[in-house]
Amino acid sequence: MSEMLLKEMEEVSLGQLKEEEKESGRSFLLIDENETLQVEKENHFLRKLGCSAAEGVKVLSIFGNTGDGKSHTLNHVLFGSEEVFATSPSPASCTVGVWAAYEPRLGLIVLDTEGLLGTSTNQNKRMRLLLKVLAVSDVAVYRTQAERLHNDMFHFLGSASATYLKYFTPQLRALSNRCGLDVPLSNLGLAVVVFQETSRTQLLDHDTTVPADILLQKRFHDLSLSTEAFSSVQYVGTQTITPPTNFSQLRDTITKQVKSTASRAPRQPDIVFSALQALSDRFCGEISDDKISMYSFFPGEDFTCPSVCLSCNICCKNGLNHQKDRMPHMADGLCQYTHQYNNKVLICKKCYEGGREVIVVPKTSASSDNLWFGLAKYAWSG
Length: 382
Fold this sequence. Notes:
By secondary structure, the chain is an alpha/beta fold. The protein has helices at residues 3-23, 42-49, 70-78, 123-135, 151-179, 212-222, 248-259, 269-282, 349-353, 371-381; strands at 28-31, 58-63, 98-103, 108-113, 139-144, 190-198, 230-239, 346-347, 359-360. The strands form two sheets. It has a seven-stranded mixed sheet, with helices on both faces. A two-stranded antiparallel ribbon has the order 8-9. Helix 2 packs across helix 8 (269-282), helix 4 (123-135) crosses helix 5 (151-179) and helix 5 packs across helix 8 (269-282).
């Protein structure tokens, strides 16, 4: 190999290293608005983050409405006011999809999400994407600048808890078994921090007689919502009469939650990537946008198999892409018989009279008969 060629290869390698150094400390697009992972392999994920495979990490994600300052909050709380996540004074959403960055001091993978009132055309798909992000998180921050906590926040978190337990728990448990983890990822819920910033109204914790966390739980109870999937739901409030916003209490709360191992311990970054990849592979595909309502953030149709029986028009009750696990379609109750599909099922009459339904598979001969004798008996019996 010539000296010139070696020199060119060295220049290319140096150029790649410089490009990676330039990206280090900055955020990158992890999942686009179509729920597609933009990182294909674990080593690419680690290189983008700028952390090693041996490091123990936790995941923090942030949620909230468009324009409530989620990216700004992450930059000031975790990155010393450096603009790691892009911000903009434009009224349009500047975060589309999910962006990721690494905070080495706390060993934290930080995920910035698109706002709940963002520009995505398919609202259901965006909600499903947000829930998958929440499912791999150890700490989730709900950021709001509303003067009062509205019901949409409680419905978002309550529905997220219910959907996590029903649809994502089996996938995370299977991943835990594959990775050989002592404690399944699905057993210990994430910690939720509600961060409210007001300018005129009093904060939820202004009345010291009743803790703000108890008031939050009471609101969930009054709306018939559960937070069973979360290890805790905490409230942090700040009143900003004249800018800038005081993030000190939020920073302290996040630091305490990340350093605590009471509910979740740090894990390797490749496990985080594997969990996100497993959920993305299972819960994907096109969904209708005409089924969502204000108070149903995560309809079951977004996570269940879309197949419908041609005979009785009943939907399959299994989860999305269940056939990857070699599970057949299933529905509650018996199907209607339709001549054109010949979907009849024979039931043993004697067992049925005794109170049991035993499906009988017709056979041309008994196990003790030879082939020709069995065929002759079958033909004679009609």
